[in-house]
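#onboarding

Welcome to the new folks! Below is a worked example of what a typical request in this channel looks like: someone posts a single protein sequence, and someone else replies with the predicted structure as tokens. Don't worry about understanding the tokens yet, we'll cover that in week two.

Example request:
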Amino acid sequence: MTREGAGLTLDRTQLIGSLFALIPVPVAVVDSRGRLILSNSAFADIFSGVQNIDSVPHHELEVPGHGTYELETVPLNDQGMKIVFAQEITNEVQLRRQAVHLEKMAAIGRLVSGVAHELNNPLAGIFGYAQLLSRGELDPSIRRMVDVVLNQAERAGKIVQNFLTLAAKTEPKRTAFDLNQTIRNVAQLREYQANVENIIITTDLSKDLPYVWGDPHRLEQVVLNLVVNAEDAIGDSPQRPGSVHLKTFVQNGRIHLTVTDNGSGIHARDMARIFDPFFTTKDRQRGLGLGLSICSEIVEEHGGELYAWSTYGSGSTFTLELPIRPEIAPEAVEPARSFEGVCLKGKQILVIDDEIHITELIFDVLTRQGARIDLAHSGMEALEQIKKKNYDVIICDQRMPGVSGQRLYRLVESWNADLRHRFLFVTGDVIGAQTGRFFAQVGVQYLRKPFRIHELLDAIEGLINRSQPLGS
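Example response:
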């Protein structure tokens, strides 16, 4: 070989070696036993502690600080040597986990809806009879106990409704609402768990806070996420008792909400990334790194801004800013009337519910107002009675064994279309997709369980006033 040829061969060898070393894809050469013979800088940086590829998983190999990889091998020669290259699949794995997580959340939402319905039935009975008792002449000590039952039943009903609201898949609804009340709902929702974890949740809410324009349910999710994150940060800190403080105020022409905790804080190197999708400082069992990014998107949709400051080891403060819309006002709500003023004398009403204590409660309420009441504990039993008698109002549960409230409505509608305007649904199932579509489609009136007695009577009176007399 000539000197020039030898030089060319040397140059090619050096070039191949340089390319192998500098190629950004992690590549290595291993022997028949999987032992590392040669690797480029990308492979060495990521898999610095690996000496034998047979000792590590080839599928979804998580490397701390680098991501998730999949190892592929290609035969190099007949001595068993192989080329190994690593492909990063971090985003794909996170998306797959996100899909699994969302499916789990959807299943939990369905479970919550079912459980809430079952809880709302006994709560409706407790709450309703407590209201009836509170209207009577009672000894002061007995009245105090009745008031406790009444207040705690109402509180339990609100907690269940908060869970239903968070589990609901609803279209964004823009309205004027009280951010302070949203914060109170979240604080009440987290009260029990916070007490268990020795965390004190406090609020300092401006009495003159303007109304917010937006979707109250989506912004409630933001507040809840910030509070839960604060609780998690406190859980990582030995300091007890933990403290989460929520404060609202107006500054520079904008509404502010701050959520401050005394938890572990956020390291300076992570502050710039906390709102990035899939970035998380938690372990995989506690989050996918989507919460803050979703919160930030929701706030931006409302014309606001979400940001944070933190001292590592001493806690964090997240600040939510929202614009002020001076021209907005909440929807007018008519003051509740005392139910003693409602007269239903001579009105024929059918009450349908498979829960006997619910039918008995409504029976006790309406007979006091002079109504004539028939009871039915199934859809088929109700259908037979409807065919025999004209009713001014048909009060019906939605979820019932056999013939559901929706099915009963359709059967009655096909038999006598005029009767569809006489239905009042009283149900705990108001977030199920099927129930929501049905109520929206037919425009039927409904009440949530548990309900206040005056709400039931107002709904009945309004239904009677809007309906035309039935033909005999």
